[in-house]
Amino acid sequence: MAERSDRAPARWRRPFLHWLDAVETGWAVPLLIACFVAIWTLYLVIAYAGGGLHPDTLEAWTLGRHFAWGYHKHPPLTGWVAASWTFVFPLSDWSLQLMAMANAGLALYFVDLIARQFVSGHKRVLVLLLLMLTPAYQFHAQRFNANAVLLAVWPLATWCFLRAFETRSASWAVAVGCTTALAMLGKYYSIFLVASFAFAALAHPARRAYFTSASPWISAVVGLAALSPHVVWLAATGASTFTYALAHANGNALSSLGEARNFLLGLAAAMSVSAVLWVLIAGTRLKQFPADFAAMSPGLRLLFYVAMGTITLPVLTSLVMGTDLPSLWALQGLFLFAVLVVCGARYPIERFYTVNLTVTVAGVALVAVMVVAPIHAVYRNDHGYEEGRNFYAQVAGELTREWRELAGTPLGAVSGDDSLAFATAFYSPDHPHCARPFEHQNSWGLPRKATLDRGWAALCFRGQDYCGRWMEWVSSKAGHVVKREFTVQATLWGRPGLSRKVVVLMVPPRGSGAAPESAAEDFSASRRAAE
Predict the structure, then answer these.
(1) What is the pLDDT of residues 287-306, one digit of tens each?
(2) Please, what is the Cα angle at 180 between 175 and 185, to 5 degrees?
């Protein structure tokens, strides 16, 4: 049937076949990626219409407001990307949602750069379509954080490594050093990619030619040089990012076995839909897999060793050190297996299957936008999010209004619950800075005296006992404080939803003449009575 369809395609298939004809002329893959970015950005806009951005995205923007070679919780790449994006694009939900999906689109483009080293024509498209059916490039990508930023960096670094190993030229060696350093600046988990490059080079039959050339040593020197400003920052600040990362190493042998099992099962689940569809496409030709594997080209074999390293090295590390190992930490490496499976198949794939898979991917996206996204938005408007995303804009607006009423100046600094603090910094028209240093996120000390003198506010949701206890402690230490409480309600397209109470602690600027605490409490009581 597939061969017959390719010989005499139905009329509805002809536009798709014309599109596939243009893969090698250069516009088919960019069009596919652009449509993917556009439709999934639209999904995010609709699905989260009643809620704010994810706290991780807000955190990335907050970090990037001040350029640094590192931040107390994460390496700096996410902050740099968010800052660069908002330097050009407006500060809004849709803008950062587009940023997240543009990052996913860029990742797919870099994957295509790898795939075209081994196959041509519509087989390149098959790789991308299979990846589009994994959760990594939509749902994982929208949560723009230190994990999601690696979606684009890992395939870029891998492509440069493949080219450097093959050509052993100085320019590609420099590119490997720069891109691996960039991956490390995204998240230290990227050490497993760097180690996998070394493992793959050592395991490959052409290792002698590679290691006796200048290429690997140029890559190492350039990579270390590119990382040196961050290393200096680590030395100067006490390496708090390592402290945060090592907080995940608190397990034992039994828990590590469970982490490793769940890690592998999670990755298998993420690839399950794509795997089933590939089985349907390959059919009985799957029995050729052993012969195809034995005849794998040198470049694919190098990629296979890289893929094995990115899976086995984290598992071994977890077993030895007792670290946490969520599968989402490794989703950026799924492209390796898609490339290996499709490009390693030496038999031709009929375009009939590529067209069918394209229609499937498009159908899933359209159903997500037209059906799933509105249902999700309505459900979340009524039931809320654990982190309280429904209320971010309302909380920021109400706090800003009360602060200006109290102090008569723009709000300059905010702390409290992390998600509320990040959201207030983003959504408040004053765009205050997050004043509580990240290294105190568990000990929750007082802000610096200079911050208190200039004026400062903190927020918690009612019922967050840990945050409430901290507020009580601050009230006893900070001197002149104003404590208030207000209620916010989620809304979606004019439809009221869930409501929640927010507790606010404000320290007016020194000499502002703000009302004393007792008056503020009376004001708060009158507001609650009015409500």
Answers:
(1) 999 999 999 999 999 999 99
(2) 125
